[in-house]
Amino acid sequence: MFLSNPSGLTVSQLIERYDTRSPRYTSYPTATRFTPAVGAGQAGAWLKAAPLERSVSLYLHIPFCKRLCWYCGCNTRAMNRRELISSYVKLLLREADLVLAQVGRPVRVGSIHLGGGTPNMLSPTDLEQLFEGLSARFDLRRCFEIAAELDPEVLTPEWVDAAGRIGLSRASLGVQDLSPRVQAAVNRPERFDTIRWASEALRGQGVSSLNLDLMYGLPLQTVEHVVTTLGQVTTLQPDRIALFGYAHVPWMKPHQKLIRDEDLPDAGMRFAQSQAAARYLGAKGWQAIGLDHFALPHDSLAAAARAGRLHRNFQGYTTDEAPVLIGLGVSAISRTPAGFVQNSASERDWRASVTAGELPVARGVALTDRDIFVGEIIERLMCDFVVDVADVARRCRQDMSEVTGTWPLLRRFRADGLVTVDDGVVEITPSGRPFVRAVCAAFDPEATGLVQKHSRVV
Ligand SMILES: C[S@@+](CC[C@H](N)C(=O)[O-])C[C@H]1O[C@@H](n2cnc3c(N)ncnc32)[C@H](O)[C@@H]1O
Ligand code: SF4
131, 236, 375, 404: least buried by Cβ within 10 Å? Predict the structure, then answer.
């Protein structure tokens, strides 16, 4: 299999050269630059100074699951004690009070995202009480989107009814792979019938945009498994499909050690799986969005991609343009124009801080002008595969010399046919798209020192 690139390298050789470990760039600076030097005091000052003319986005993290899938990279744990989940919800609202006390002004919310973990581990009563509490605290009159990440195996008709009452408009269902063999290798049994029921029930209750999460690169997974799974799930006509490459980082997520290294597909197999999926979905009418998303042409994500208005945040690709994100809950990240802050990833510490009336912030990073410049370059590359560096420099009032170190690195990508560089415009070629994270890393001064901390590029 040959690509037409100037150096004539095969796909396998390109993978060998560029399948280094790079950040997923859901933010820049990446979370590895967050430090405890930024704490609750700084977070409070940034919230107070945050611009609130435009609506803010709210993210609420629910760190509970029915059981732990062995591949999981999320911040969560298996927990089925109803009373602990209910008390968590009450503390989320206390945390909202602490944030609002810092802001000191009314806050208008444009979108709410429940992430996890598994937000449908909340009982229907917990869910409705959470939303009653949020509407008593925030101005939700112009809230255009309420989204939740859901585990279909845990979803009940009662929960779906409650979702209808709170106005859930967007749902994301975890599917991963439907082959029993792969499911057994990752401790996640799940039936297609359940996913079909969940999709139909949620749509019946007003969910107008449905996303399904799939994965490739899982243990024992083959191209055939990926395509067979796609064949089934596309019959449900999901508005969006996310196809994540399994990030195997057992040094950060020790439960991933339950996955046997010898069962994992190698880089070439992962590449073949992602390419086969992209071909299959393209032929069926889903538009490729950025690195790992697909959307039907009517969907807002597809429209944003076509218009060059796609963004990237901690949930992946998004249409959200709000300058302020308030994250509530264990490990949640908040963003203001001045910087990022992250809550404690320890549930015990988070509960203790909120109960004591303190913002549960553990770490963060202040944004420099250079960070904003580099962040904008990386976001455009991740979203559009092309960036006019000179134009970004002008808009960020930065000097091009801030990224001069990047050009020699890009020469190699160019020689291998992965990028073109023309008058300050860097464009990733179709063959270069799978390696976009490696190209972004060339602009990221910290990336070279972080080789072992991240997951594979492909
Ligand atoms: C919060 S879960 C989705 C909702 C629910 N907990 C579930 O699993 O059905 C977020 C998604 O992240 C993806 N994911 C989890 N761990 C991952 C990993 N190590 N590498 C890549 N994607 C991962 C899965 O596709 C998963 O559906
Ligand atoms: S993939 Fe979803 S259900 Fe599985 S452990 Fe992770 S968050 Fe929980």
Answer: 404
